Amino acid sequence: MDRPLEVGITGGIGSGKSLVCRVFQSLGVSVYDADSRAKSLMTTDGILIRQIQKEFGTLSYRPDGSLDRAYLARVAFEDPLRLQQLNALVHPRVASDYAQWADTHRDEAYLIREAALLFEAGVNTTLGKMVVVYAPEDLRVQRIRARDPQRNETDIRHIMKNQWPEEEKMKRADYVIYNDEQKPLIPQVIHLHEIFDPAHKTNRS
Q: Which of 148, 124, 144 is nearest to 10 (CA)?
């Protein structure tokens, strides 16, 4: 049997890619949330834990085994080079985890891999199609402030600087979903669903 089409969904922080993926899930599509899995693997994958401790010190973890995110933010997230080193440890473990997950969904028409840094990590080259979820920067800041009140605007824009500009992602994407509160979102998702799974459209007619 042919392997499912693998579709990447990405977008800047606050763009609404998780919302888009929830719509796909409501249509019966399996979604791999790479960012959530990365956070989980950083506390459950023994190989990755040892690599992080070796590179960033044992203080990266609390005595109970949980990740000390405040410490890691200070030593890694604020330094682009150190952040690159951390990503170089995490991304291969996530790739391995994703491959195992995808292998258990071989009978589906297509699968979705959702992550913020698919282009930045070069993962897009391993996927069949790429979808970018777009929203204007000021709207994204507004959404994040409402969602994460502990973050100020300076923090948010700092995160955005570590991600590719939306325009660059859109140029490289196969499809763009506009989550700008101007264009209805659900019809855009359904349109792509019918492209990725032509049998769905046939069955509806």
A: 124
